[in-house]
């Protein structure tokens, strides 16, 4: 019984971490529109310290 | 009893975190991003000790780099510093967590060394600030030991505060930490000595600021430009609660925009709430003060946003030096420490409860999940923040120009007149102009900062004068500089009128050097910098005395 309960705990936590991880990775590899807009206007003559 | 696992696990975890984050640094070259500029050999100049016309934002950090460069080449020094920062941040937290359980220490190490704060400041190149981040767990542990009267603790406090105090922000955080956590009834002598020692470590940048010709008041537009910002639907408060929220959108890992990040942050804070209760029992005389310090750091991080912005704008325009508070998110370090500490203890409490209800393995599963949570929330910190920390080589032009300037020292003006540049050879990555560190001469640079469409004015009166001359299209020869360094890249043409009266002495693929033959005088000597030199010597003496105290404490049985 204890083993089954441990398995369920592991499965639930693993699934939660997996879902969060997948969402975070998708966010990491698919930059937001803001990031894309920043890169599209990149100009070596125009140096900015940063954008908000 | 010798427990190799318990002893080695924190070290192995710290080493693993460091290796995974800094993996791209095995490639040769220099990682050049924003404020992170290392060069092959940085000369030690008076400007490093006390800038004549600029605020001492990197005092005594730059002087220490120059001294270290005498023994270690720049590429190796950069790797040593970054590796030490990540390693000691993780190890310091692993040792600070009040627990007997090894896995809890691992949770603490990951919760502190795998954070949005660390990722964002690393991508902004603020490795000096990250030294303070790495030092804080050690400083808090040393303060705890001073309060309990452990031998050598005061020396350890000084040695832990020293890396933090190499920048003004880190110095303020270290001083605030000691002021809040250290005062103890019956130990007033140790309190005064501890606070005095950390204050002495801050003297180099304090004295340098007092002797600089730069105005101490700052442009109020910087308050909005450098205020903390939202990274996802949870807003600015949500971003800061997860230790993110840096002002610069270009240095935020992509995963921070994920819709589930706020949910994961809520889970993390819920576990912290559980852990905070347990921490109060384990560290009854210190945790309330640490919580107070963390709360203050959170309020400071929020200060630049509404409704605190008008008050901060008034402060930076009225009080000299208050401009340091504009980028408030950088003060979040004590909050990040409390979150990591209470998260580790909270995870242990939950694991203990579950182990009691089910079995010990269920408890271990909870701790392993807690250890993985920071990594899962922020997967793109791995491998140099998903490849953003890429070493590059300096073009040979830099050595050629450096040799010519060294042969006839004199002030250098770097054009285009922007403190931050975007070089082709650096993959177009924004980085601070390397000229002041590469050339063995004072370099006149623009300290105004462009944030999007806004230009935040600097404090250097000479830089403002140069900008006026450039805006009028007048020759820069009239400014009295000996050399003019110009980027020779397509699209960066400097008007001929600006360079009139100068003689070209070098033209490469990336840089050109022009000489003002009418100026032959060498750059000025120390002048009014002697007080700053004295402050540096005093700080060095404090560190030496601290090291001796640690050695003496170890010899005692």
TrEMBL record, chain A:
This is DUF2613 domain-containing protein. It comes from the Bacteria. It comes from Asanoa iriomotensis.
From TrEMBL, chain B:
This is Membrane protein YfhO. It comes from Asanoa iriomotensis. The chain crosses the membrane at residues 12-32, 76-97, 118-140, 160-183, 190-210, 259-279, 291-312, 332-351, 363-386, 533-551. The keyword Transmembrane applies. The keyword Cell wall biogenesis/degradation does not apply. Keywords: Membrane, Transmembrane, Transmembrane helix. It comes from the Bacteria.
């Amino acid at each position: 019984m204890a083993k089954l309960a441990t398995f369920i705990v592991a499965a639930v936590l693993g699934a939660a971490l997996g879902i969060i991880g997948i969402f975070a990775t998708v966010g990491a590899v698919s930059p937001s529109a803001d990031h894309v807009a920043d890169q599209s206007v990149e100009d070596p003559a125009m140096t900015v310290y940063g954008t908000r | 009893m010798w427990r190799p696992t318990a002893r080695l696990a924190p070290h192995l975890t710290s080493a693993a975190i460091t290796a995974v984050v800094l993996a791209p640094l095995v490639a040769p070259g220099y990682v050049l991003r924003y404020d992170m500029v290392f060069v092959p050999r940085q000369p030690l100049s008076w400007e490093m000790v006390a800038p004549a016309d600029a605020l001492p934002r990197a005092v005594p950090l730059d002087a220490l780099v120059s001294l270290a460069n005498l023994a270690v080449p720049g590429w190796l020094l950069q790797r040593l510093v970054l590796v030490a920062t990540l390693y000691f941040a993780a190890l310091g937290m692993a040792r600070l967590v009040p627990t007997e359980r090894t896995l809890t220490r691992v949770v603490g190490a990951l919760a502190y060394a795998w954070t949005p704060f660390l990722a964002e400041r690393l991508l902004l190149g603020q490795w000096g600030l990250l030294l303070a981040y790495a030092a804080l767990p050690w400083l808090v542990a040393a303060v705890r030991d001073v309060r309990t009267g452990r031998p050598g603790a005061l020396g350890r406090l000084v040695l832990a505060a020293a890396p933090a105090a190499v920048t003004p922000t880190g110095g303020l955080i270290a001083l605030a930490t000691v002021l809040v956590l250290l005062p103890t009834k019956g130990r007033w002598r140790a309190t005064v000595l501890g606070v005095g020692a950390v204050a002495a470590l801050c003297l180099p940048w304090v004295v340098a600021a007092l002797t600089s010709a730069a105005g101490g008041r700052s442009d109020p537009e910087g308050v909005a430009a450098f205020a903390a910002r939202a990274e996802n639907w949870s807003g600015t408060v949500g971003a800061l609660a997860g230790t993110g929220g840096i002002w610069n959108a270009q240095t935020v890992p992509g995963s921070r925009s994920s819709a589930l990040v706020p949910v994961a942050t809520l889970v993390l804070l819920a576990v912290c709430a559980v852990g905070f209760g347990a921490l109060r029992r384990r560290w009854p005389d210190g945790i309330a003060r640490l919580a107070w310090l963390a709360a203050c750091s959170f309020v400071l991080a929020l200060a630049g946003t509404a409704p605190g912005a008008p008050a901060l704008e008034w402060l930076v325009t009225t009080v000299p030096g208050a401009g340091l508070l504009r980028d408030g998110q950088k003060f979040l370090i004590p909050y990040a420490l409390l979150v990591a500490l209470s998260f580790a203890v909270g995870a242990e409490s939950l694991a203990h409860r579950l182990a009691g209800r089910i079995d010990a393995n269920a408890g271990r599963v909870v701790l392993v999940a807690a250890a993985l949570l920071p990594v899962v929330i922020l997967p793109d910190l791995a491998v140099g923040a998903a490849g953003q920390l890429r070493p590059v080589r300096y073009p040979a032009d830099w050595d050629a120009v450096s040799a010519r300037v060294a042969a006839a020292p004199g002030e250098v003006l770097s054009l285009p007149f922007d403190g931050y540049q975007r070089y082709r050879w650096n993959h177009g990555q924004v980085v601070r102009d390397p000229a002041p560190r590469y050339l063995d001469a004072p370099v006149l640079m623009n300290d105004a900062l462009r944030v999007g469409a806004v230009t935040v004015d600097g404090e250097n009166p000479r830089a403002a004068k140069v900008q006026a001359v450039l805006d009028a299209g007048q020759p820069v020869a009239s400014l009295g500089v000996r050399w003019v360094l110009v980027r020779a890249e397509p699209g960066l043409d400097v008007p001929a009128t600006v360079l009139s009266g100068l003689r070209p002495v070098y033209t490469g693929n990336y840089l050109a050097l022009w000489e003002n033959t009418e100026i032959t005088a060498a750059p000025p000597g120390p002048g009014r910098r002697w007080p700053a030199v004295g402050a540096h010597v005093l700080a060095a003496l404090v560190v030496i005395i601290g090291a001796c105290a640690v050695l003496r404490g170890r010899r005692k049985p």
